[in-house]
Design brief:
The chain has helices at about 15-25, 70-80, 95-105, 120-125, 130-135, 150-165, 180-195, 200-210, 215-220, 225-240; strands spanning about 1-10, 30, 40-45, 50-55, 85-90, 110-115, 140-145. The protein is of the alpha/beta class. It holds the Pfam family FeoB_N.
Length: about 240
């Protein structure tokens, strides 16, 4: 039986934990992330002769390292490379929730966007154009109600298709200002030279341009002594490019 790892990301109060509980039931346990006071929830579920290990990431509004919760969620997606990341959005507050989804899509293409609380949106008269959202984002998009188990099978089908490599999503490529794009083009080759292709170089370049020292610290911890010195050069270049 195949086994894959699924990360569950989303803003607080989107029903993310409800979905986690719906899928994993009693097959879950909690603890703390290594070296952190942040709670970690892990569970397991099966679908179509496949076992999935699910990690419920801390609920966050962004992945910009403004809090320990954000650092934990960011580092897991970047370093642990889950087979699939489900980004849970609130159907009644899509505009606010999409910010996190776009950030995740810059980090990995192995994403399913899960629009939860679809029944609540319908009650409020909110119409969701799933096809248009999926076309714009470039990744599978599914509408569900976690508490009423609506759309769960469709969600898991997409999760398995991505995890098994049967589909390879091509997320939206966010275009920034000419000045930022020029700086990214200058910085990315240096990052790629020092880190290889194991991490999303464009996203790392963006974070370095933003002066994200927390990400730099996490990267250094992941590197060997031979590569930690060049990383300092990348960081220095990133700070210089900001000006």
């Amino acid at each position: 039986m195949s086994q894959y790892t699924v990360a569950l990301a989303g803003n607080p109060n989107t029903g993310k934990s409800t979905l986690f509980n719906t899928l994993t039931g009693l097959r879950q346990h909690t603890g703390n992330w290594a070296g952190k006071t942040v709670m970690m929830a892990e569970g397991e579920f099966s679908y179509d002769d496949t076992t999935f290990r699910m990690i419920d990431l801390p609920g966050t509004y962004s992945l910009y390292s403004n809090s320990t919760d954000e650092e934990v969620a960011r580092d897991y997606i970047i370093f642990e490379k889950p087979d699939v990341t489900i980004v849970v959005l609130d159907a009644t507050s899509l505009e606010r929730n999409l910010n996190l989804a776009l950030q995740v899509l810059e980090m990995t293409n192995r994403v399913v966007v899960c629009i939860n609380l679809i029944d609540e949106a319908k009650r409020l008269g909110v119409r969701i154009d799933l096809q248009k959202i999926e076309q714009r984002l470039g990744v599978p998009t599914v509408a569900i109600s976690a508490r009423n188990r609506i759309g769960i099978d469709k969600l898991l089908k997409q999760v398995k298709l991505i995890a098994s490599g049967q589909i390879n999503p091509r997320p939206i490529h966010i275009q920034y200002s000419d000045d930022i794009e020029r700086k990214l083009a200058e910085l990315e080759p240096s990052i790629r030279e020092n880190l290889g292709s194991q991490y999303p170089t464009r996203w790392i370049a963006l974070r370095l341009l933003d002066g994200d020292e927390s990400l730099l610290s996490s990267l250094k911890k992941r590197m060997t002594e031979e590569t930690s010195s060049p990383m300092k050069e990348v960081a220095s270049y990133g700070r210089t490019a900001c000006h």
